[in-house]
Amino acid sequence: MISFTTFIFTLLALFSLSLSAPMRRDVFVPPIIYPKSGVVWIAGQHHNVTWETDGAPVSITNGIGRVYLANNTIIDLDHPLAIGFDILDGRVSVQVPSVPTGQNYSLVLFGDSGNYSPQFTIIGL
Ligand SMILES: *[C@@H]1O[C@H](CO)[C@@H](O)[C@H](O)[C@H]1NC(C)=O
Ligand SMILES: *[C@@H]1O[C@H](CO)[C@@H](O)[C@H](O)[C@H]1NC(C)=O
Ligand SMILES: *[C@@H]1O[C@H](CO)[C@@H](O)[C@H](O)[C@H]1NC(C)=O
User: What is the per-residue pLDDT across 1-49, written as a single tens digit (0 to 9) for each?
Assistant: First the structure.
């Protein structure tokens, strides 16, 4: 019978393994530079979402990018803000959707793997 402590340590070990796993594969998880935390976007505006492309592996598993909007609970997968661009571009223009004001939003950039931007504000509906 394993002790509760052993159980907790096993969970922690599995958790840190899942966190470090992407580093070992050729998975490119580019950090989003813009939007930054605290930025305010207004519905209808166009903005360049930008991300870090330094350190990209030579062969990327999936180099086709997608950008989605997320509120603090879910990613709106039905309405991508941008699709079909090259993840090595480091930038893609999006139009700010008209969404409810008063929530914390973030963008999720997908290539190989999803990466969240800091939270920002949208003045929408
Ligand atoms: C996005 O960046 C490109 C290249 O720097 C620039 O020409 C364009 O005006 C920018 N778009 C916006 C909405 O800032
Ligand atoms: C996030 O968006 C979903 C879908 O629009 C909505 O149902 C949900 O209430 C939103 N979450 C918050 C915290 O507003
Ligand atoms: C947005 O984030 C701020 C800072 O974390 C928090 O104080 C606020 O309650 C959040 N607002 C919503 C609608 O979740």
Answer: 556 655 555 555 555 544 544 444 466 778 999 999 999 999 999 999 9
Is 81:32 a contact under the CB 8 Å cutoff? no
CB-ligand 3 contact for 121 (6 Å cutoff): no
Ligand 3 in reach of 104 Cβ (< 6 A)? yes
Which atom of ligand 2 is least distant from the CA of 103? 14
Strand partners, 34: 50
**CB-CB neighbours of 114 under 10 Å:** 13
The architecture of the domain spanning 32-123 is Distorted Sandwich (2.70)
25: DSSP letter: T
